[in-house]
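Listing 4. Sequential folding, example run.
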Amino acid sequence: MTFNTGNNVPSTDPRDLYDNAENLDKLVNGADPFYADRKGVLRESWAGMKNTFDTSQTGRETAFALSQADKESRFQAFLVSSGYVSKGDYAANVVLAERNEYVAVNAATTGASPGLYRPNASATLPLTLTGTWATDSANLVLLGDDVLRQELASSVGAAMIGAAAQVVPSISELRGLLRTSPSKSAFVTGYSAQGDGGGGPYYLDAADTTSADNGGTVIVATDGGRWKLEYKGSVGLEQFGAVGTELHDDAVSRAIAWAESSSIVSEAANAKLTFGAGKTLNLQQSHEITVPIQMEVLSMVHDSGSSGACFVIGATYSARNTGWSLKFPAGARCVTGNTELPTSVNAAGRGFMEVRRMQFSEIEIGTLIAYPNHGLYLNGSENVFVNQHVQHNRITLGQIAYNGVGLKLLSNSAETGGVQANDIRIQDVFSNFHNMEFDTDGYSNSTSNLVTVQAMDLHAPGGYGLNCYSSFNRFEFGFVESSLLFQATSFYNVVRCGNNQSSGIQISDVGTSNWILTGPPSTTQLPATIGPELEVVRRNNFGVPIVVYGTATLTPTSDSSQTLAIHVGPASSPGEVMKCAVGAMTNPNVMQFPFSFIVKPGDYYKLSVSGTGTASISNLYVTQSSV
C-alpha cells in the first residue's frame, strides 16, 4: 500500500517514512530501470544505472577500437610518407614488414606491369611473398610516382629539376655534383662544413672545360664540370677557405692569385677581397702581391710568422702600380713577437707590411703591435728592383706600439726609387724601439711627405722617437714626449709640435735649415736673462724662434780697432752673421752698440770679440720671436 501524501520535503509524517522505505527497495533491488518517488518524480534505479553504464562502455570500447585502427592507418601513412625502403627484387620468401617497403617486379618473369610494388591497404603485415604472382598480386599495389617524389625530396632531388638549385654543405660535396644533372646551379652552405662562413651560390659553366680549380671562384667537379661562384664586386677570403681557427695562409694565397689574375685587365677592374668581422685572420707565411688589388680585412690579423713581412706589396716590378686599397681597420698583432718593451730592432725578424711599389693608393691599418722588425716599411731602397717608388699615397695608421720600428721609410733615389709626397696620418705611436725612421746612413731621399701624428709618446729605452736623414718633409705633432733627431743630411724639414719643449721633447738638429717649432714656452722659461759671457756657444732649446737682445761696449786703442761678432747657425760652430766694430782712435772713446738677432729652434749662437782694446756686453735678454 502506498500513501502518496504529497507532503512537502522535509516531512515527519510516518506515512511518508513508509513510502520512502518502499522507494528505497525499488532503488536497490528493483528490476525496473526507473521508479517514481513519493513526489511522483521518476528516478533511475541501480538496475537502470547498470544498464546505462554497460551501454556506454560498449560505445567506449567501439570508439577505442576505431581510434586504434585510425592510429594504425595514420602510422602506416606516416611510414609511406617518410620514404620508401627497397627490399630488392620480387621473389619467394621476401618479407615486407611495413607498407613503405617495396620490391621491384620484372614483367618478363611475372607477366605483370613492371615497376615497384608495396603492400596495399588490405594486406596483413608482415607479408611474406610466395613468389607466385597470381597469389601475391592481390596484396600489392604499384607505387606509381611515389618513389619519384621520394627522390625529389632527397638531398640530391634538386639535381633532377632543371630550374632548382642543389644545396650541398661543403665545397668537397660540390665537387661531387654531376654536370649531367638537369639542375645547373648549386648553393653551398659552407666551405669545409655547413655554416662555417664559406660557400655561396655557384653555377655550372657547361662551355668551360679548361679552367683550373682555384679553390674558390672555380671548382672542378670529379666529372670535369666547372662550377663557378656567382659574385658581385668582391669575394670573401672565406670563400677560398679562410674559415675556422686554423691557419689561413693557403686560402689567402689562393685568393690573392685569383685577385691578381682578375686585376691585371685594367685599373678599373681591381679585384676586391674581404674578410668579415668577429674572428681572426690567422697567418704565418709571407704573402707577396704584385698587381694592384683591393683588400678589406675587418677582423684582427694574428700573425705567427718569424721572418719576412706578412704582406709584401708591389713585390716585383709591375708597370701598373696605382689603385691599391689595403684596409685592415682592426689591425695586426705578431703573436710570436715582442711581449715587452723591445730592446732592439730585429732586422731578420717579422714585419707586418713592406711596400715596394705603389702610387695614388691607400693603406689603412688600425693597430700594429709587437713586430720584432717593423710595423709598416715603405721601401724605396731599390734593393729588389729599380723603380721602387712609393709616392702620392694616403696612409692612415692607428696605434703603433712595441715594434722594432713602428714606421720605416727608406729611399735610394728621388728619380728611380723613393718614398715621396705621401700623406701619412698616425693616431698614436709609442713604446717602439724606434718610433719612426726616415732613411738611414747612405739614404736620404724620402722627401716631400706630410706626416701628421696626434701623439708620439716615449720610445723604448735605447731607441729614439724620430730619426730623420731626409729632407723637405713636414711633420705635425699634436703631442710629443720623445726624441726628434735630424741628421746632417736632412734639410728644409718643417716640424711643429703642440706641446712645448719642457714637456718631454728632446730635439737634436745637426742638419741644414730644418725648422722645428714647439708650443710656446711657459712664463718661467721666457722671457729670460742670460749671462754676459763672451766666446760661449749657446743653443736655442726653447723650441720656438727667439730674439736675443743686448748692448755691446767697445773701446778701441790708438792703433787697433775693437770688434764684436755675432755667430748664428745650425752647426755647433756657427758662422758669423753680423758684427759691430770701432776703428782705432788717437783719443779712444767708449762706444755702445745695442744689437738683436733671431735664433731658430735648435740653432746655435755665439758672441766673439777681436782687437787689442776692450769689449764687454750687458746681460743678454731673450724672448720669443713673433716671426
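-- end of first protein; second protein begins --
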Amino acid sequence: MNQEQREARLTAYALNDPGLSSAERSEIESLIVTDAEARQAVEETRHLSRLLTNGLAAEQAATPVTAVTIPASSRPKTKSFARIFQLVAASIVVLAVASTTMIVRANRKAENERVAEAEQLAQLEKEE
C-alpha cells in the first residue's frame, strides 16, 4: 500500500466513512494502536473535522434567515374568451380534416372494390 492509499484509509476511518468494511476498520484500529504516526494522522483529521463543522455551524448561525417571496403573476390565470375561441376553432379544423380524410379513403376503397368486381365479371364473361 502506498502513502496516498494509507492516508486515504486513515482519513476514511477518522471520518467514520461507511464505505469502510468492518475488516478494514479493524485493521486500521490495530494499526493506530501500534503506529504513532497513523494515530496522530487520525487525531489531526478528527480535529480538523470538528473545526470545520463548528465553523460552518457558527457561519450558518450568523447568517440571518430570510424568507424568499415570489411575486404573484400580474396577469390573472383565467383564460380569455379569445384564447378559448382559438382552441375551439383549432379543434374544429382538426376534426374536419380528419373526417374528410376518412371519407376520401372510404370512397377510394369502395371504388377500388367496384373496379375489382367489374374486372372479375369481365374475366368470367370472357371465359364463357
